C-alpha cells in the first residue's frame, strides 16, 4: 500500500511537470515536422500569417490530410483569434501563444496515454501505477508527446485501439468484443493521419478478430461484427476524402449551395475528377526508394539497434532479450509438435500476456524497418506496449537508477539543448519586430538563418499583407555561398531603417567573421546544440564552451 501511494504521488508530480514544462515552454526543437505538419499551415490558413507551406500541403502534391491539423492547431488558433476579436485580450496572438497553444492541446491529449495504461494494465497483467510511473517518467512522454507531431496522434490512436480490443469479463475471461464500429473509425482515422498506422494496428486487429472468432458460435453474429467495422471504416474514409478534396481543390461551400444547377453540376464533376485521397499519395511517394533517399537513407536495422535504444533505453534492450526467449520457446514447442504430434497452443488468445505484448511491440518495429528512412520519432507509439511489458506486479522494476538517469539525459538533450536556441531566437525577433519603436516607425527587416533547422515563420507573427520582413533560410550552405549571400545583402544596405540579422550557431561563428562585413550587435542565446555542426570536444573544454553551445543573432553594421 505504501509503495502504491508513493507511485501515485510520483505520477502526479511527473504529470504536473509535463504540463508545466509545456507552458514554460520547452526550447528544444526536435524536427521541422513538429511545426510544418500542422501549426505552420494552420497559422497561414486561419490567422493569415506569413508561413512556409511544405510540399505535402500544396494542391499539386497533397500527401497529408488536413482534418487533424484543423482539429488540433486549427482549433487552438481559431480560439485565440476569436478571443482577440472579442477584445478579451488585446494581443492574444503573439509568438508565445502561437507556440504554446497547439502544444498545450497535445499535452492534454497525451493524458489519453495515461488513461489507456491504467485501463490496460490489469488486462495485460501489469501493475497500473508502476506502468504509469514508467510512462510519465519517460522523456518520450515529456517531450515527444507534448509536440505537434502526426506521430503523437498515431500513438494516441494506437492506445485507444488497444483499449478497445482489450476487454475482460468480471470472471477474468476475455469478453465478447462490442466496439466494432469504433475500431473501424479509429483504424481508418489512423490510416489517414499516417498510413504507417496499419503497422501498429495489425496485431491489435488480429487479436480482436481472434477474439470474435473464438467467442462467436453464430456465423450471422460474426458477419455482423465485420460488417460494422467495414461500414464505419468506409464512412470515416469518405469524411476524410471529402474534407481533403474541399481543401486542396479550393471549392467553397457557397459553390455547393449554389442555386444555379449547371454551376452545381460543374462543381460536383470537379470534385469527382479531383478527388484527393492523401494516404495513397503518401504511399506512392514513400514507396519510391529515390524519394526516401532525399530525406535520408538508413540501414534496415536502425530502428532495432539505434532508434529503439535512443528512445527507450534499457527497456528496449530488455524487450529484445524477452523476445529472443519467446522465440526460443516457440521453436521448442514447434519441435515438440513435430515429434509428438501435439496441437500447438493458440498464440494470440490463449497464451500469457507477455508473448502477445511482445508481438504488439516487435511486429510494428519489423514493418517500419522495411523502409530505408528511419527516424526515432516513428517508434514513439510503441511506448504503450513497452511499459506494460516492463511493469510486472511480481517483480520490482530493475535498473531503476539507469532508467532515471537515461530519461533525465534524454529530457535535457531533446527538451532543452537540441536546436534549443532557434525557438527563443524567433520569440526574441518577434518582440523586436513588433516593438513600439518598430510600430511607430516601420522598419525593413531581413532575417537570414544558416545551419539551423527550418525556422517556422508563423512564430514571427507577420501578416501576409506585411512586406517589411524578409526571411531567408540558407539551410546548411557552405562558407562561400553563405558569405556571398551576406555580402550581397550588405551591398544593398541603403535605407536608414533597414536591419539585417544573421542567425547562426556558435560552431560556425568564425566562418561568418571571414566574410567582408562587420556586425554592430550580437545576441547569444544559450543553450543551442546543433548535431549537424557539433562543437569540438577540445573547444568545449576551453573557456569558449558557452559560445560553442549557443546561437548567435548578429546585426549587420550599416556604417561598414
From TrEMBL:
Q: In which pathway does it act?
A: Glycolipid biosynthesis; glycosylphosphatidylinositol-anchor biosynthesis
Signal sequence interval, chain numbering: 1-22
Q: Which GO terms describe its biological process?
A: GPI anchor biosynthetic process
Keywords (alphabetical) are: Endoplasmic reticulum, Glycosyltransferase, GPI-anchor biosynthesis, Membrane, Signal, Transferase, Transmembrane, Transmembrane helix
**InterPro entries from the entry?**
GPI_mannosylTrfase
Coiled-coil stretches: none
Query: Where is the protein found, in the record's own terms?
Result: Endoplasmic reticulum membrane
Q: Does the keyword Ligase apply?
A: no
Q: Which GO terms describe its molecular function?
A: alpha-1,2-mannosyltransferase activity
Principal place where this protein is found? endoplasmic reticulum
Enzyme Commission designation? 2.4.1.-
Keyword Endoplasmic reticulum (UniProt)? yes
How this chain sits in the membrane, per its record, is: Multi-pass membrane protein
Q: Which GO terms describe its cellular component?
A: endoplasmic reticulum membrane
Show the stretches that span the lipid bilayer. Answer: 153-171, 191-213, 225-248, 304-327, 347-372, 378-394, 401-422
Which family does the record assign? Belongs to the glycosyltransferase 22 family. PIGZ subfamily.
Question: Would you tell me the protein name for this molecule?
Answer: Mannosyltransferase
Amino acid at each position: 500500500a505504501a509503495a502504491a501511494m508513493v507511485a501515485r504521488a510520483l505520477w502526479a508530480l511527473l504529470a504536473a511537470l509535463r504540463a508545466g514544462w509545456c507552458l514554460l515552454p520547452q526550447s528544444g526543437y526536435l524536427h521541422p515536422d513538429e511545426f510544418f505538419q500542422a501549426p505552420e499551415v494552420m497559422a497561414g490558413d486561419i490567422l493569415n500569417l506569413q508561413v512556409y507551406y511544405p510540399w505535402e500541403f500544396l494542391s499539386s502534391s497533397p500527401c497529408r490530410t488536413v482534418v487533424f491539423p484543423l482539429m488540433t492547431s486549427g482549433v487552438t488558433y481559431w480560439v485565440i483569434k476569436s478571443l482577440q476579436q472579442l477584445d478579451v485580450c488585446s494581443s492574444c496572438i503573439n509568438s508565445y501563444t502561437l507556440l504554446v497553444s497547439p502544444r498545450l492541446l497535445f499535452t492534454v491529449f497525451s493524458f489519453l496515454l495515461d488513461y489507456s495504461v491504467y485501463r490496460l494494465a490489469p488486462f495485460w497483467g501489469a501493475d497500473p501505477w508502476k506502468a504509469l510511473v514508467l510512462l510519465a517518467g519517460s522523456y518520450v512522454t515529456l517531450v515527444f508527446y507534448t509536440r505537434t507531431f502526426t506521430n503523437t496522434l498515431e500513438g494516441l490512436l494506437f492506445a485507444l485501439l488497444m483499449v478497445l480490443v482489450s476487454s475482460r469479463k468480471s470472471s477474468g475471461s476475455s469478453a465478447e468484443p462490442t466496439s466494432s464500429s469504433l475500431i473501424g473509425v479509429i483504424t481508418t482515422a489512423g490510416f489517414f493521419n499516417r498510413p504507417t498506422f496499419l503497422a501498429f494496428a495489425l496485431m491489435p486487429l488480429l487479436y480482436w478478430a481472434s477474439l470474435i472468432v473464438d467467442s462467436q458460435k453464430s456465423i450471422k453474429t460474426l458477419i455482423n461484427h465485420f460488417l460494422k467495422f467495414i461500414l464505419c471504416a468506409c464512412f470515416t474514409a469518405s469524411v476524410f476524402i471529402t474534407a481533403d478534396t474541399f481543401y486542396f481543390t479550393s471549392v467553397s461551400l457557397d459553390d455547393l449551395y449554389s442555386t444555379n444547377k449547371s454551376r452545381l453540376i460543374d462543381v460536383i464533376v470537379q470534385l469527382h475528377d479531383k478527388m484527393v485521397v492523401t494516404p495513397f499519395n503518401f504511399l506512392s511517394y514513400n514507396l519510391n526508394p529515390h524519394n526516401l533517399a532525399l530525406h535520408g537513407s538508413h540501414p534496415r536495422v536502425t530502428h532495432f539497434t539505434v532508434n529503439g535504444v535512443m528512445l527507450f533505453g534499457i527497456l528496449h534492450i530488455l524487450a529484445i532479450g524477452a523476445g529472443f526467449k519467446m522465440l526460443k520457446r516457440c521453436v521448442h514447442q514447434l519441435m515438440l509438435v513435430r515429434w509428438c504430434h501435439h496441437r500447438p497452443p493458440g498464440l494470440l488468445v490463449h497464451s500469457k500476456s507477455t508473448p502477445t505484448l511482445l508481438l504488439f511491440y516487435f511486429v510494428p518495429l519489423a514493418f517500419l524497418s522495411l523502409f530505408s528512412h528511419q527516424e526515432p520519432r516513428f517508434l514513439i507509439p510503441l511506448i504503450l506496449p513497452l511499459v506494460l511489458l516492463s511493469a510486472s506486479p511480481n517483480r520490482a522494476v530493475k535498473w531503476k537508477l539507469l532508467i532515471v538517469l537515461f530519461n533525465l539525459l534524454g529530457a535535457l538533450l531533446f527538451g532543452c539543448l537540441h536546436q534549443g536556441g532557434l525557438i527563443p531566437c524567433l520569440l526574441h525577433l518577434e518582440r523586436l519586430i513588433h516593438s513600439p519603436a518598430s510600430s511607430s516607425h516601420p522598419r525593413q527587416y531581413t532575417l537570414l538563418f544558416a545551419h539551423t533547422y527550418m525556422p517556422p515563420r508563423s512564430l514571427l507573427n507577420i501578416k501576409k499583407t506585411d512586406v517589411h520582413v524578409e526571411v531567408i533560410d540558407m539551410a546548411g550552405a557552405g562558407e562561400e555561398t553563405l558569405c556571398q549571400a551576406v555580402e550581397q545583402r550588405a551591398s544593398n544596405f541603403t535605407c536608414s531603417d533597414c536591419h539585417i540579422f544573421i542567425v547562426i550557431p556558435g560552431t560556425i561563428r568564425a566562418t561568418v567573421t571571414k566574410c567582408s562585413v562587420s556586425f554592430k550587435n550580437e545576441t547569444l542565446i544559450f543553450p543551442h546544440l546543433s548535431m549537424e555542426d557539433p562543437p569540438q570536444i577540445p573547444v568545449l573544454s576551453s573557456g569558449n564552451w558557452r559560445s560553442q553551445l549557443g546561437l548567435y543573432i548578429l546585426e549587420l553594421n550599416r556604417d561598414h
